[in-house]
Design a protein that fits this description.
heterodimer; A: 6-stranded mixed sheet; 4-stranded antiparallel sheet; about 0% helix; B: 7-stranded mixed sheet; globular
Chain lengths: ~110, ~110
């Protein structure tokens, strides 16, 4: 069974600074994918970044990057130059090729202080 | 490119009633997944439809059922509503055959059961 754990219910950061959100996961599958989704107060879940487990190189999307540690089953999200619009709930999720379903963590609420 | 849409936005039902939620997938996508998100929690997988067939189901009772139509839109039906069914229902579309495994979400339907 897949599990995803986010141990930080809330985080806050000053605007323009860098923040890292933590995520650990567990799966017995060898082929899986990891995602970070953002859910602002508007409720719509927005895909932020995606990482294939078979790739050693960490994914990057503009100000968002991940630190993927496969042996430790860790998948953290780094947000650089934080902006007010980054304030949201952030969910880490995993998906295996077999099940094709997203398994989400409990989320981390990120606050950006001006 | 049209994104994922859901209707209605909000719905209030009485315990014991039945409800139908609708989802239109993003253009070019052939797979729809449904998730239930209780307040303050991460989304939970209900089921997935691919080529009009149910393709995987989470830990939800049979009173949760669905359909996918030839145009890849989908419905989620819930019979005999219970108070615990109050939640945000999210629909996500993807293209199963591209092997990218990215799911794109609609804005959700907020269901309140009284």
């Amino acid at each position: 069974a897949q599990t995803v754990t986010q141990s930080q219910p809330e985080m806050s950061v000053q605007e323009a600074e860098t923040v890292t959100l933590s995520c650990t996961y567990d799966t017995s599958e060898s082929d899986y994918y990891l995602f970070w989704y953002k859910q602002p107060p508007s409720r719509q879940m927005i895909l932020v970044i995606r990482q294939e487990a078979y790739k050693q190189q960490n994914a990057t999307e503009n100000r968002f990057s991940v630190n993927f540690q496969k042996a430790a089953k860790s998948f953290s999200l780094k947000i650089s130059d934080s902006q007010l619009g980054d304030a949201a709930m952030y969910f880490c999720a995993s998906l295996t090729e077999g099940a094709q379903k997203l398994v989400f963590g409990q989320g981390t609420r990120l606050t950006i202080n001006p | 490119e049209t994104g994922v849409t859901q209707s209605p936005t909000h719905l209030i039902k009485t315990r014991g009633q039945q409800v139908t939620l609708r989802c239109s997938s993003q253009s070019g996508h052939n797979t729809v997944s449904w998730y239930q998100q209780a307040l303050g929690q991460g989304p939970q997988f209900i089921f997935q439809y691919y080529r009009e067939e149910e393709n995987g189901r989470g830990n939800f009772p049979p009173r949760f059922s669905g359909l996918q139509f030839p145009n890849y839109s989908s419905e989620l039906n819930v019979n005999a509503l219970e108070l615990d069914d109050s939640a945000l229902y999210l629909c996500a579309s993807s293209h199963r055959d591209t092997l990218r495994y990215e799911q794109y979400f609609g804005p959700g339907t907020r269901l309140t059961v009284t």
